[in-house]
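Lecture 7 notes: from sequence to structure.
We start with the chain below.
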Amino acid sequence: MTKRPDSPVPATPRRALSKKDLLDIDGITEDDIRLVLDTAESMREINQRAIKKVPTLRGKLVANLFFENSTRTRFSFEIAERRLSADSIALSAVGTSVAKGETLLDTGRNLMAMAPDAIVIRHSRSGAPHLLARNLPCAVVNAGDGTHEHPTQALLDAFTIRRAKGTLAGLRVAICGDVANSRVARSNVSLLTKMGAGVTLCGPRTLLPAEIERTGARIATRIEEAIEGADVVMILRVQKERGGGLGFPSDREYYEQFGLTPERRKLAKKDAIVMHPGPMNRGVEIDSAVADGPDSVILEQVENGVAVRMAVLYLLIGASGDDE
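Predicted structure tokens for the same chain:
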């Protein structure tokens, strides 16, 4: 299924993003997006070597601040840092000064006194990474903030789509599910429309945000309408911890009306790919036969996440040119 991208890695890539931080997709340029995706191709090759490690970020320190539950994103960043030989430290809200009432900014300033080169932050409050970025001189990477954005997830999704389809421009992408509570949806709509894809957002009316008309995406309230003729079907998790379970009577009813079943999958193009940012609610938003089927690239998304996060860190704090 995988095709070569139409934008191969340049022989002499530009070695930095245009800004010191990666906070959201709206704040980066199309050139920055292409640079990350092209650089990730090189990083992906590193991940397939027998010895999956290069000295690119040797001597650099990355602080991982995860104030919200996370498994794959935190592990993905930690693996990316180790494969680039960066030193990393981890801080969570449990058992730290944050639990004793310290403000986020004071935590950041205290960390800054120990001279990290980058801070990766995941926080339940939208805008938390922006607060640190405005006040700290090191690079700040948003690993997900509230219901705002998840830029590295959108970049790894775009990377996965480009590897499967060869391009982003002109594709029809259906993003279906709990849009209201999804930072993944916001980042993906921003990135994909910026790169020339047509996006359709679909979900129960109770799970479509009020400002959805301003996203530039087409809106559908029937999953069949959204999927028909799509090149990419991206299913969103029902985020019950954020109220996503309150918009419909039961999991069974949600599955019957909006679940991606094998029958509904057939409405998309024959060579369409199926995506999910995880973790999945099997039998609620997606059927196992589709999640584990031949069109699924869900595990490729996880694999590509390491390469994309390596690329982001390299382009923000690396660029020494001495990687092997």
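Points to note: The longest helix spans residues 298-317. Strands lie at 61-66, 87-92, 118-123, 139-145, 172-176, 198-202, 218-220, 232-235, 273-275.
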